[in-house]
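Cross-posting from the chemistry board since nobody answered there.

I work mostly on the small-molecule side, so proteins are not my area. We synthesized NAP and want a rough idea of how it might sit in this target. Sequence and SMILES are below. Is it possible to get a predicted 3D structure of the two together?
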Amino acid sequence: MSGEEAPTLQPEQEKKLDDPPLDASQAPQESGSSPAAEEKPLSFRSLVLTGYGGYDKVKLQVKTQKQPQLEAGEVLVHVKACGLNFAELLGRQGLYELLPAPPVTMGMEGSGVIEAVGEDVKDRKVGDRVIVLSRSGMWQEMVVVSANLTFPMPEQMSFEEGAAIPVNYLTAYMMLFEMANVRPGKSVLIHMAAGGVGFAVTQLCQTVPDVTVFGTASAPKHETIAQGGVTHPIDYRTKDYVEEIRKISPKGVDIVLDPLGGSDTQKGFSLLKPLGTLIVFGAANCVTGQKKNLLAMAKTWYNQLSLNTLKLMQSNKAVCGFHLGYITDEQLISRTMFKLLELYGQGKIKPRIDSCYHFEEVTDAFRRMHERQNIGKIILLPEAKKEEEKPKSSPEPIENVEKTEAAVNDKKEETTEEVKAED
Ligand SMILES: NC(=O)c1ccc[n+]([C@@H]2O[C@H](COP(=O)([O-])OP(=O)(O)OC[C@H]3O[C@@H](n4cnc5c(N)ncnc54)[C@H](OP(=O)(O)O)[C@@H]3O)[C@@H](O)[C@H]2O)c1
């Protein structure tokens, strides 16, 4: 999901953000009332997309402002961990339509501790550990969000796990159980099987008896995804995955989950058994590196599946699209999140964390996903990296952050300071 962001506070702004509930991504709004609150300004670290392009466009800033004043239904969360999603690779390149124009703070999910609650919030309290879903704005230390989009974390769940659940698992669950209606004995093809959504799909398939999972991924990841439940890992880089699947299952598969787009959607459609379901939920083929690639976009667009309804009828197949960002039904999201938390409690799902990066290492996090190295979820940590944690051979910081300083004064109520990030 994605949506509104937490722009820099302007002195004249009485209300910081007035987003609809799902656009829960808010930087804290200033308080004007409590003298105690005014005494101590709030400083928090935030990753800001300053323009479209490569890694250097995401800058770490420290924002300072007055203490937030919560409106009804809102909570203030101290964020401990956030998820990196493929959508943020697209967003950085200007290819994610739900993300507002820069400067904008990305981040659609996180976990943390509630620091304050709005007056009518009854079911959340200060100190609660919560998972947060948002349209954007989660890549910062402090956020004001709608309490409705916070979910209590089970005791045994780490902050990293909590941040890894919402986007990947809601997407996987809704596609498998709401759209494709996966049932015992069915077969599923998932691309990017070693990624965040891939692991979520694989784990959820295992909650249904006798489901066969075909998963495409780079070869070095096969052992891990097979251990995770992928029945047939396929190296799409060296083999034709359509041929490989046909060798194992000549009739094809019942469900294809397609996050790639372009010619892969056509292949997916061709692989469907009669009464099978194809769900298109991404366009990763548009991304070839850190910068926008117009040729890859044109190729993906040109090769996309094109059907007329008569042909579709005669094929006895279903073609669906899924995009979590366009699901505005908070009750549906909430119901599904609670089902997922139940499954977590039963030990049936558990996010696989690939790696964790502090905010100053965001470039490394992006690079890991762009270079297709991750096996599972990449997590960002708002907390500053301690000196001793820094790798001995830490490379020189690249020029992706410059330092600007501004003093807090009566006229400007929020200040922003960019800090050095690591390469
Ligand atoms: N519609 C929705 O609501 C929704 C929600 C969440 C995610 N998605 C989509 O689901 C897909 C997976 O998302 P995710 O966040 O879980 O990411 P992810 O799977 O962790 O993505 C990274 C992995 O995908 C593979 N990959 C394939 N093509 C790639 C490319 N062009 N660039 C980089 N990596 C590529 C690589 O693994 P291998 O080398 O093993 O292939 C890489 O390690 C994305 O297409 C995303 O847009 C859609």
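Reply from a structural biologist on the board:
Welcome over. Reading the output above for you: Confidence is low (pLDDT under 50) at residues 1-25, 32-37, 392-412. Residues 220 and 235 are 9 Å apart (CA to CA). Happy to explain the token format if needed.
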